[in-house]
Amino acid sequence: MAKKPSRNAKKDHRRSSRQKDEEKLVELQKRIDEFDPKTDGASVKLFSDLPLSSETLQGLKEASFVQLTDIQRQTIPITLKGEDVMGTARTGSGKTLAFLIPTIEALIRAKITEFDGLAALIISPTRELAVQIFEVLTKIGKYNSFSAGLVTGGKDVKFEKERVSKMNILVGTPGRISQHLNEAVGMETSNLQILVLDEADRCLDMGFKRQIDSILGHLPPTRQTLLFSATQSESVSDLARLSLTTPKRIGNTSDDRFGPSESATGEISATPSTLEQYYITVPLDDKLNTLWSFIKSHLKSKILVFFSSSKQVQYCYETFRTLQPGISLLKLYGRHKQTSRMETTFKFSQAQHACLFATDIVARGLDFPAIDWVIQVDCPEDSATYVHRVGRCARFGRKGKSMLMLLPSEEEAMLKKLESNNISAKKMNIKQKVKKSIKPQLQSLCFQDPIMKNLGQRAFISYFRSVYVQKDKEVFKLDELPSEKFAESLGLPGAPKIKFKGGAAAAEALSAAGKEKKNASRQLLQLEAANEDGEHTTEDAQGNGKVRTKYDRMFERQNQTVLSKEYLNLTGNAKTEADANKSDSDDDFMSIKRKDHVLIEEELPDLSIPVSKRQAKKALSKKLSVTNKGNPTKLKFDEDGVAHALYELEDEEDFQKGGDALTQKENYVTKESSAMNKADEADKETAREKRQEKKRKRKEAEKRAKEEDSSDYGDEAEGGVAYLGTGDVDLDRDMESSDEEEVEVPSTKKPKWFETSKKVSRKDVVEIEDPQSLEDLEALTQRLLEG
């Protein structure tokens, strides 16, 4: 029996393992110090050539990460030395590994354990991107003992608060991370080693500036900061000044305010070289037809379609799904639930042929495998958004194609802006034979389904608002948009009324306020709403004695529904009479106004009581009351949807254009005669076919009857002997000559069970039965003797 190791032996073993680990760290630090990014970085091609720990290299190898990309070759050697980095690279170039590997290595060299709390913080603008970063982190860091957590909106906050303080690496969105830093008990940031801001410009564009400022306020100044983005902007530069200390600039930006570029290969193109970029000029009312025709002609492709608003995504998804183009359709936008967003992301990633309708929430950082086409139905707000959208395909050296739909008013200005950023797109021509119009189908859907019509109205309003809030008025020209034609292309009976107040500055401020409100804490919003409700209720109670309900507050939200304004008009809360007179009458078509009208007695209908039975009968009879009102006003619609009177007569001028009356009569008679002749020929042909079919069925029945008879005869002649006559020649001759011969009537049909054979009686023939007993034989003998 083996002896258990003693305590001293265990201590010695632990001591020796710690010494080995410290020696490895010392050796690793020595390799990092000796590594020169300028001289050695250009020759590095594999991850194994970098001074990385064995655990990280093993995780990279098992995750199939072997070769370095340009941004990784330029960034990792610098970040391993602990310097701040401001990186810019084209989409799909591998920025995720460029900051995850230095993050893991920084924690290894700092000897961080699970008891040291938060040591690395990674911030991404969207939930999908945060999930993708976390998945890559778990793959390459599986051989390390660090604890990592993912915190995003849409998850259980209480569940996260109980565990977030024990995490060494935290990946999440700005709103949820800021909430945990403010509310979670025991979340300590004094040991923070590294901060990563992925897609920093998008974080600021989405209205997360306040949350990022709050996060930076909780972090210690002695930390390493990595800021990555595919594009550069002034807001990102301002953020870099606040959070980065003498950073190294890497990438294709032309901003030299942060020192010389560390790029070893020169300037990096904004878009991948394997991407084929096209654009087409399409009128606004023809965009959905073009998109439908494109999808129908690319059913074996993986397509990503971008819209400018979530309402357009919903409408396009619901209508196209009803029309069934023949390919799997998916939708993804910000207001979806977290579970639904993750399920859609997984389905589209795993699908081989699918079409995803999405907003710009998908345009940043997400890596969907093997996307063939990126379609931009709505023009991007700037060249940076264009770069991020098209960057979803042609990633990591794969081929891809993109197509941008531009309005005639957007084409010239947008192409100039793309060319100024070294982006060139070829013009694509659409074959009119291939293009199909779906406007009648959309009109039918909106007419039959009120929900679909409401979605169309919301899509119309959201598109015009998205154009209105754009800063670049050279590209986006609201006045040149054909509103009526666009509404008709969506299947709507008319263009909904939209009012913009305050100009572009107010629209921009409203948009920024909306983004901040969307990303604000829900608890604070609920408290503010409760305070406002209490104040309003008190005022109403003191003044008018009226208590406001949640439905009143719901309808007071302008631009939330199409009929909110009309509801306010009905309830009397819209505006004063003076303001109402200034506006158009169409805006107040449901408002109730008191006016004094001049009544003319001669024009008033006779409402006196009938004085005779005849008048009473005429008043009560619907048929008699209609006699003096002419023909009924019922309408009928032709195939084009144009209304016509039920008994519509042609005008005299139109009739005379057709020629003389006799000539028109002859033409009409000739036309109808030819039509009748054609109909007669068709009827004769149909009758002939019916006769032939009837004859065929009769012959088949006779054939079956003969086969049955022959089978019956065959059964009777199983012995193989045929008998002709009775065997007595004289008796046979007498039977043939006798009129009372017992002869069975021949029949081709098999007799039924209720039929008996037709026989002729004969006096000298006794009909007997087969005797079965002695008594039967005695009776038969008696009858023969008597006969």
Describe what you observe in this structure.
With 787 residues, the chain is of the alpha/beta class. Among the domains are: 20-250, P-loop containing nucleotide triphosphate hydrolases (Rossmann fold, 3-Layer(aba) Sandwich), CATH 3.40.50; 275-489, Rossmann fold, CATH 3.40.50.300; 566-606, no CATH class. It contains 29 helices and 16 strands. The strands form three sheets. It has a seven-stranded parallel beta sheet, sandwiched between helices. β10, α13 (338-350) and β11 (354-358) form a beta-alpha-beta unit. α7 crosses α9 (209-218) and α16 (439-448) packs across α17. The longest helix has 56 residues, at 661-716. The radius of gyration is 45 Å and the shape is extended. 30% of the residues are buried. Residues 253-269, 535-545, 574-578, 580-590, 713-733, 735-747 and 756-763 have low confidence and may be disordered. Residues 45-73 form the DEAD-box RNA helicase Q domain. Residues 1-23, 250-269, 651-756 are annotated as: Disordered. A motif (Q motif) lies at residues 45-73. Keywords: ATP-binding, Coiled coil, Helicase, Hydrolase, Nucleotide-binding, Nucleus, Ribosome biogenesis, RNA-binding, rRNA processing. One of its GO terms (cellular component) is nucleolus.
